[in-house]
Amino acid sequence: MTGVHAQGAGADLPTHMVADMFKPLSRPAEMIHETSLLVLVICAVIFVVVAGLLLYIVVRFRKKATDNTQEPPQIYGSTNIELAWTVIPILITVVLILVTSRTIGEVQNAKLPEDALQIRVVGHQWWWEVHYPQYGIITANEIHIPVSSKDPQKARPTELILQSADVIHSFWVPQLAGKTDLIPNRTNKMWVDPYTIGTYFGNCAEYCGTQHANMLLRVIVDTPENFEKWVANQKAPVPPPQTPQEIEGRRLYYANACVNCHTIGESVSKGIFGPDLTKLMTRQTIGAGVAPLNHENLLSWVRDPQILKVGCLMPNMQLLDNEVEAITAYLETLK
Amino acid sequence: MASETIVDPDFKVPAPERVGEEGKTWSHVIQNLVFTVDHKKLGLMYIGSGLLFFVVAGIMATLIRVQLFFPRSTFLDPDVFNRFFTMHGTAMVFLVGMPMIFGFANYLIPIMIGTRDMAYPRLNAFGFWVFFFSGLLLYFSYFGAPGLYNAGSAPDVGWFAYSPLTAKAFSRGHSTDYWTLSILLGGIGSLATSINILVTTFCLRCKGMTLGRMPLFVWLFVVVAFLVIIALPPLSACQIMLTLDRYLGAKFFDTQAGGDAVLWQHFFWIFGHPEVYILILPGFAIANEIIPVFSRKPIFGYPIMVAATVMIAFISLGVWAHHMFTVGMTSLGNTFFAISTMVIAVPTGIKIFNWLGTMWGGKLHFELPMIFCLAFLFQFLIAGLTGVMLSVVPFDWQLSDSYFVVAHFHYVLIGALLYTLFAGIYYWYPKAFGRMPNRKLGLWHFWLFTIGFHLTFFPQHISGFLGMPRRIFTYEAGRGWEIWNQLSTIGVIIQIPGILFFVFNLIYSYFKGEEAGDDPWDAWTLEWATTSPPPEYNFEKTPEVRSRRPLWDLKHPDDPDWKFE
Ligand code: HEM
Ligand SMILES: [Cu+2]
């Protein structure tokens, strides 16, 4: 599988790039999966029976070359038969209703333990803002969570608190859970409980404007130890820039409008319109998954974000070549 | 001015030119079209313009599919792509589906109930022209909408235009206004036509045609007309609210000022779900006429078919939130809408079984209309089953807004509705034009289109299972979606010649088709009792009927239906 990049936290984990909902690796995706399989089987049986009947009728009652022109017997209906084929669908429906309401309850009304990890995800046109209120961390686009366990004693599920800053988005990582919308003025909740480490892929699943297609999601599920390491790193102060180019880049960053939209740690750069850049270099991609985060792509992005992600809400800052290089060099110290 | 008048002693009042008769020159043809109030001409005009918009919207769909052939393809810009799928969806629903069904209603209802025209012929013409200009208005957005720098031209908010994406802050310029106005306008036409259908069927039935003897076709359109009248006002209301939001500082959906984004979804889907049935019931209506004739048996369980239709329509008013299982309703709300949705499967199942029951023991003639109806049965079965899957809320949490949904509703809209429309066109073509459609060309149409259709849309179920969301203009390589998208695009390439055969057949048979005669299919309803094409007044003497199959009674005096009904 592709998608493994040299850079970024968790880049060495196995990737689950094909987000097959029939290969769930977490609750509630697994609970949904079981229900779905049952429904699929019921539907397949109905399909085979009815399509078979249709085929049989087409073959058996076709007009044969030898037929005379006489009309077949005229039948207008039969109450008993009608009754039979009303009752059978009703029975099937009842089964489906029972199964459905049970799974709805299990997923929606699940009680999460006290120590569940909480993450607040805020949808933006076309990226994700990610908060860890219990840890005081803010990041973007890539969500790190510790792996949980099938053993209820050891399980540490994650609760996602979903909000939106502009239009409606939807959080969908099929192998972890079904989707839930992020709606402005509302707070939605969902939870995941993965039991296999790896990087899970997903998308924004509600059309949200120009770059809806490039509002990609990565959930990086790692061991609790590695997760704690990641947390510690996210909280650690950023080392100051060293080389003259990096220092010049920092000056340029602060002298330009970058600060109006982005936040970098405890500095005057406190903008919240764009993604937090404090630990930019610990991420695997830029532009919410539009391209791997490497030197070339970062240069290109700083020169003109509209090249990699046309229509995105970060403007071209009209920088000179040496400014682009300097700012990129500075950004590359943010790890 | 002087008060005296100048009188020319030689002046004669010119004899009024008779409008809509000669049809010799182009200007006559145009006059004829513009001034006509004849339900048959209007019906054909509805169908013709529906086909025209179908081609435009189909070209947009083709370009969408070409863009999705390769991952990270740069064939279309995202904005262009987003406009295409919005215009494609909006046009297919409001400018193709709606006029096609109204075209059939207009053409057939008066003849089927043995009367001379719709109750309000002028209102009928008004409805058509309002619809037609609403379509032009929508497409005019490509030229008229750009306002601000970087603002979109055509609408690009998706055919259900979720707020707050439509708010001024996120949709600049005027594209959304064109969308809103066009839909409002089209809605006026649909309401007018629906009222006309109801008054016509309730007041103008010929002697002896009780409600219980109306062809099922007419019955289903009565139900459709009621649904339109109930479902359209919420749509119009929310369009007006949206315009108030955008221009007069109202805050219904403006979330930045405390408005409610989900409110739009309720309004829209209270219209939108019944709309699905408004589109599919006419498909059933056509099948109800064709399947019996080509099975040589009366429809099985007529009263139950009527009851099931009314039940479907009624329940369809209470299922709208099944489009909203992911917005975070309570488990109770989700369960309620899951149940109401699943319950619809029961009357729908009854319908399928009754069609099978009609064919059982019959003598199936595989003429073009019947072939399309058989494909309809097969495809609607699939569409219905994927619909059941979507109604299972947890499954829907995965499938909603994925390509699975795209596959599902195309199996409904193409696999069921469009196939029955094709069937209907082939079935009543001889009536409308006096000539038979060419069978060979029709078979080419059928096979190419059917293979292409399944190749296009079946793989989309799978890309949906693999996590592909809908309405994305591109995707990255390696997500497992390439092959399914490629098959899908190839399918479209196969469908296109199918459609060409269809269009060619319509034109070719008009000039070269075999003479049809009044009743080429040996059918039973009143439209086959008059000439092909019918005269402007339909019947010289308005007929009188004694059963549901008046022509059967005529042809079988020894074994008439009225003895058994
Ligand atoms: C030639 C046949 C057709 C093809 C190849 C086709 C293809 C497509 C494609 C590729 C999409 C976009 C899906 C996405 O981006 O998520 C789409 C959307 C849609 N299509 Fe079709 N389509 C066809 C005919 C129809 C017909 C006949 C109807 C209805 C009468 C229809 C109704 C819709 C609707 C309602 C949408 C959703 C639009 C939206 O997302 O806003 N299509 N179609
Ligand atoms: Cu989004």
Automatic annotation (TrEMBL), chain B:
Its EC number is 7.1.1.9. Residues 26-546 form the Cytochrome oxidase subunit I profile domain. Its main location: membrane. The keyword Iron applies. It comes from the Bacteria. GO terms for biological process: electron transport coupled proton transport; oxidative phosphorylation; respiratory electron transport chain. PROSITE patterns: COX1, COX1_CUB. InterPro entries: Cyt_c_oxase-like_su1_dom, Cyt_c_oxase-like_su1_sf, Cyt_C_Oxase_1, Cyt_c_Oxase_su1_BS, Cyt_c_oxidase_su1_bac. GO terms for molecular function: cytochrome-c oxidase activity; heme binding; metal ion binding. The chain crosses the membrane at residues 50-70, 90-113, 125-145, 178-204, 216-242, 262-287, 299-323, 335-356, 368-389, 409-429, 441-463, 483-508. Keywords: Cell membrane, Copper, Electron transport, Heme, Iron, Membrane, Metal-binding, Respiratory chain, Translocase, Transmembrane, Transmembrane helix, Transport. One of its GO terms (cellular component) is plasma membrane. It is found in: Cell membrane. The keyword Transmembrane helix applies. Pathway: Energy metabolism; oxidative phosphorylation. Pfam families: COX1. NCBIfam families: CtaD_CoxA. Cytochrome c oxidase is the component of the respiratory chain that catalyzes the reduction of oxygen to water. Subunits 1-3 form the functional core of the enzyme complex. CO I is the catalytic subunit of the enzyme. Electrons originating in cytochrome c are transferred via the copper A center of subunit 2 and heme A of subunit 1 to the bimetallic center formed by heme A3 and copper B. This is Cytochrome c oxidase subunit 1. It comes from Terrimicrobium sacchariphilum.
